[in-house]
Each structure stands twice: as structure tokens, then as C-alpha cells.
Amino acid sequence: MMLFTSFSICFLVFSPLRAADILPVLYELPPSPALTGALEQNKALTKAERYKLNQVVGAASFAFHRGTELPPTNLSSQSYFVGVIDSDDIESISDHIYTGLANGKIVDVSDCGVKVVASLGPPYCRSEQQCGRPMALRMDGQGRLIVADAHRGIFRINLETDEFKVRQPNSTPFDTMCCSTGQKEMLYSSSTAVGGRPCKFINDVVVAGDGTILFTDSSARWPRQEQLSILLEGQSTGRLLAYSDKSNQAIVVLKNLSFPNGLQLGPNDEFLLITETGRAKISKLSLLRDNSWLSLSDFASNLPGLPDNIRASGRGTYWVAFAHARHENMTSLVDDYDDQPQMRRIIAKMYSKDQIKSMTARYGIVAELDETGAIIRTLHDPTGLKVDSVSEAIEKDGYLYLGSWDKPYISRVATTKQFNVERFLSKLKSTCRATTINIDRLRVILRRLIAIAELRRTLLAAKRRQEEEQARRATTQAPPTDSTSSTVDSTVTASVTETSTTALDQTGSTPTAATSAPSTDTTARASDSSTSTATLSVSDMTSSAPTSAATPVATIPGATTTLDEETGGIVDPSIEEATTADETTTAATSAATVVTTASGTTSSTQAGTEATSASTPAETSPEVTTSSATTDSTAAASTDSQTTAATSADTTASTIVSTISTSATT
């Protein structure tokens, strides 16, 4: 021990690698969590796509915006003049993905190539302090982009202006980059003192509903390049600040935070979540105007990593990115030496930044938290080869976009295995194949095809459940007498809803009991099996004869396909319960038309009308009802017709899915 101490002292005095002196403090972290339950190790992030490879560097944060698409123009990296685009030149309304790069530029990466929107630094800048380093991007309520620059301050960029910068005619082309629109305005300068001192390291930003801009200042001592020193030091000198556009000044909201980093407002701005990287936790600041105003509490603690940015998923949950993973099977200087400040100081002196980083294994991880702060899902890259350190995780169009500080690409991974229309279109646009394609028209076609496939699955599932129910009854009930066989065949109802099946098992109802009751009572029981349901008659699709009002019906739930109005995908009931009436009507109409064509018995107009009448906003449990035949021969014909329709729809949907899969793969 004495020999090691002597060597350490000599190294501190004479080592040329000696870093800036840190002032470590004592703190305590709970034992690192085990990778069990929701933290169980997986390889989801190893499948991440490298989006915009070699076109961007250090895309750390993202903002999504639906706005006008301007004609592409060229931009010189050094020389500009201001031009004006005529309103007639605006091409369309498009979804934009904005991000900030290591060179201080704000770019749009939604389409083919990369479009420069604005540059935070002046022309001919050389250093990160001069050019700026975008740390976080957000949209305000007026469609303007708010950018947190680590060194320079808070900027606001107007994305809808008609004025834009263009390349001079004789300048050299700027690779694949071109210029869109964007005028920047500095709202707050880091050199302006707030609470007695200027900001050293601005990190994340968020915009409240009233326009107030909240942002974090991570350290009073160290700039962005010395993030490692902030962690090894362990001091709580970070602050939460607020800027008001009305007063044009910033104030201190909270102080004494340990490396405050990411920010995310809760629903209706009732609270603010703050990730404290130095303590591996997320704090919750109450914004309610009551006794809890500005009270701070723990939202999630002992996280499986050092948290960076936090973003809402749009489903009531939150995605948390981790700059460094931490769990019980890996080494972590922050954990192993939390109670040994002098050892952390020696390590900071003896080793370079790269050497210190190499002491911790590369491991990529992001987590999804529910509204209580509990972890419900994690995505891992145990190798750290595809994804290691993540600055931000944000969900859009079936993709989870992952930010980084130094990678020459944007990592993104599909959130589900299910085909997603917007994800497919995003991939299509980014590979430069959409220049001659009507994207809006293609979106409508794909949504209708998915509706057809969903209806096909529903019909086949209903048919299987009907056959299983009939087989179950045949094995548990005695065969009817000759005098009543025809009556039984004409009145038995094959309920395919879970509620009616459960009720049948509990009450012990038998086919004989059903035959003794009038057919109208049987119809009433079928209607009572669900609450606030809608019915779409399929009898007209399978038989040209009109259905009698007294004929019992068999209900088939879920035939009206619900589509996600944001992504165009089939809605997972566990994620989202409803959509707009227009999309439901469109899906049901197109599905009914295709099934009618497949059966060849009813005009598409009639089927479409019935589908539309079945899709109303008040219908929370859509069902499809089909009339049972009153004789054995009619029942058989109806079953054959349903099978024909389902099989035809199956063939059509299979061809569609195959084509889509081939296109997506290509």
C-alpha cells in the first residue's frame, strides 16, 4: 500500500498526462441493479439501423415537426446571401426530423440527403465554443425550433419563414447537403449571469404550454468536454433555469442538483421530470399551484445506467437514454468509488479520459418507464458494438431514434415487428426512392390494404371459433330428436365473443333451451352479449337473399379495423384503444368492398354503405353479424360463401403483404 501511495504521488507530480484538478466529494449510491425482470438482458439494440451513415456526426437530439416542404437549394458552408422563395414554390406539407450536429449546424434528415436549416455559429468558426454544440431540440407552440447550445445559449429558429440562404453560383457544391429555411434568434446568452454566475454547461431544454423555456445548467465548474470530470467529482452544483420571453430574462428555479441533464414535462404541465446523471435517478418537480408547488421528489432511482435525456413516448410512458450502463456484473467508477473521493481524484490524475472510459465495459441500454416511474421495458446491446452510449431515445413512426455525441450516423430501431405504414414510408423517402411517388396516395393505399388483411384475419378467426363452439356443444350435448333437428339447426347461435362464451359456461345453457325460446329472444341474447356494440351485416356479402328480422344472428367482433391516425398501423389494443371515425369508416368500407368482390354476391356500393353505417364514434366494440340459415342447406351455403370470401381476402392480403415485405427489404 505504501509503495502504491508513493508511486501515485510521483505520478501526480511528474506525469505529463495530468488532467485538471478535480475536487471530489463523498456521496452514496445504492448497489447496482440486477438484470432481471424488465431489466433482463436482450439484443434488441443490436438490430439498430445506421441511418444517414457518413452524412451526419454527433446527432444528439431530435425534434419532429409537420410543416411546409421547400424546393431544395444548394448551400455553401462559408458564403451566403439572402433570397426569397415564392409561395407557389412550396411543394407540400411534410414530416420533418430535425437534429443538431457536432459542427453546430441544425439539419433536417427526414428525406433523401441532409438539409441544413441553420448554423448556430458564425462563418469560419473553428472550435466547438465558437461554432456551438446543439445539445437538445424542442418545438414550441408556434412551430418554432428551440435549441439548447452547450456553450452559447438558447436559440429559437423560425422554420416557416420564406427567407432562406442559398449557395452562390460559383461556390463548390456542399456534398449531399442543401439549405432549407431557417432564421435563428438568440434568446439567452450563456455569458449572461443568472443567480450570480453565467452558465457553464447548458444541457437539455423544454417548452411549457405558456411559452416558458426551462433548461438545465449541468455544472458550475466544467464545460461539456469535461463531463467525465463532473461525474468523478460528484459535486451537486447543477441548476434548473427558466427563461421568459415576456420579461426577456432567466431565473434560477432549482439549484444543488447533481449533473442535471434531461427534462420532460408531464401531462398538462403538472410536473417536470429531471434526470440527475450523477446520482443515477430521475427527480420529479411539482408544478401544481398548491401546497406542493416546486416540491422535489424521487420519480425513479437506482436506474440501470447514468441517465441522459428523457422523452415522452406519446402513450403515457417515457423513454430514458443512458450515457453509461450500470448493473451488478460490470465495473463502474461512479459506483465502485462513491465513498472514496481521494481514489477518484488519483484516477483522474493518473489516466487520460479515453483510458478511464475503457475501464467500463461498452454496453448500450435504453428504458421505457410508466407514469409511476417503474421500468416496463428495456432494450440492450450487450456488446456495445452497434449502440453503446445513448444521448436520447425518442419514438416516431414506428422507429426509436437514438442520439449520440460522436457517431457518424443516427441509430434507429423498430419498436414493433408489425408492419407500420409510416415506418415503411420513412424508409422509402430516406433512400431517395420517393422523388416521383405520391406519398399521400401511397399512404392511403397501404392503409386500406392493411384493413383488408385485418378483416381477413378476423373472418378466419371467427370461423375457427364458430367451429370450435359447435364441436364443443356436439361433445357435451346429446343429439336432438328427428322432430326437432331442423329447428335446432335453424336457431342455434354461434357466439364468438368472449363474454357470451363465458356466460354460456356459467349458466349451463343448452341448445335445447335455445330451441324452446322464440327466435327474437335468441337475437336479443346475442345483442346483450356486448355493451354499446355496432353490427355490420355480412349476410349481404354472402347471400343475395334478404335476411329476415326474426332470424338469429352470429356475432363476429373486431371486423371493423381500427387504424392509428398517427402511424397508419393497426392499433395494438394494449397501446391505444381508439382512433377517429373517419379512418374507421374508410377501413371498414374498403374491407367490406373487397370481401364483397371476393364473394361475388353483392355490389360494392351496398356493402360499403353497410360498413359505413356500422362505424360511428359511439361504437366502442364493433361487431360483424351474419344471419344463420333457416335450413341445413342454406346454412351450408352461407358457410361456404363466408369461407370463399375469407379465402379470397386471404389470398389478396397474402399477395399484398408479400409485395410490401419485398419492397421494404429492397
UniProtKB/TrEMBL annotation:
Gene3D superfamilies, sorted: TolB, C-terminal domain (2.120.10.30)
Keyword field: Glycoprotein, Phosphoprotein, Signal
Signal peptide extent: 1-19
Record's compositionally biased regions (Low complexity): 473-557, 581-652
One Pfam family per UniProt: Str_synth
Domain Strictosidine synthase conserved region: 203-284
The keyword Signal is assigned to this record: yes
InterPro entries per UniProt: 6-blade_b-propeller_TolB-like, Strictosidine_synth_cons-reg
Cellular component, GO annotation: endomembrane system
Gene Ontology molecular-function annotations: hydrolase activity
Ranges in a coiled coil: none
Keyword field contains Manganese: no
Start and end residues of each stretch annotated as Disordered: 466-652
Family: Belongs to the strictosidine synthase family.
PANTHER family attached to this UniProt entry: ADIPOCYTE PLASMA MEMBRANE-ASSOCIATED PROTEIN HEMOMUCIN-RELATED, STRICTOSIDINE SYNTHASE-RELATED
This protein's name: Adipocyte plasma membrane-associated protein
